[in-house]
Amino acid sequence: MEEIIIRPKPKWQLVDLKEIWRYRELLYIFTWRDIKVKYKQTFLGILWVIFQPLFTTIIFTVFFGNLAKIPSGELPYSLFVLCGLVFWTFFSSAVSHASDSMITNESIIKKVYFPKDILPISAVITNSIDLFINIIFLFIYAFILGFTPNLLGLFIMPLAIILTFLTASGLGLFLSSINVKYRDIRYILPFFIQILLFVTPIIYPLSIVSEKKRIIMAINPMTSVVELVRFIFSPNYIIRPELISISVISSMAIMFVSLWYFRRTEKFFADIV
Questions:
Q1: CA separation for the pair 235, 153 (Å, rounded)
Q2: Structurally, how many domains does the chain consist of?
Q3: What is the per-residue pLDDT for 2?
Q4: CA-to-CA distance for 196 and 179, rounded, in angstroms?
Q5: What is the mean pLDDT of the chain?
Q6: What is the DSSP annotation of 129-159?
Q7: At what angle do helices 118-144 and 47-60 cross, to 10 degrees?
Q8: First CA to last CA across the chain, in angstroms?
């Protein structure tokens, strides 16, 4: 029989990839469980994934595109908005589910040992399936409108996906660890996400914002994600490498701080959850 000795992790070690790999089957089980629960006894099933960004696109197009006449460059306003909503829908859903992952798995945390960071990560992976479905929908919709991705866009899309996944995972880890002790997070988070939606250039182009404010907005990694995706379908859409760099650094900083705080509080989860 294999003997497993559980020792506290060194303070400098923010993530134990070897341990996560050892528990990879548990990560798969959590992810597959959440996927089955998500679509269990639903009539439309996977179509609900497309419904949210599609319906929101229609609403935004009517009010902000047709009535407010917000510019969208060479792109039709509906495609302009959908480029942002596809990734924003994943981001907001992943952060919300990841932040609540410790509470929903309270009974498991109290009974057995496993690396707790698996829970918020599995929540993000579960929602990433929705993201890939909506990306396919985005490409189909763009093709119908006569917009095909440029060659450079095929290399940019993975960067947008990684940046979104990294940011959502970082915030998910941070908020899930806070939510264990302070249950106010579940009430504050929807309001925070709603505010963040309007400071992310989804319904308007970043070009209408002043230079100083663009730099501030780039601290939000989703700003660059939205801009990168729009560039895929419009090669004349201007993206700023320095703003992308700020967003990448910000996303990495969010992940670093989140892992540090998660490790610092992880040992108390089973006691106070």
A1: 9
A2: 1
A3: 47
A4: 19
A5: 85
A6: HHHHHHHHHHHHHHHHTT----TTHHHHHHH
A7: 60
A8: 32
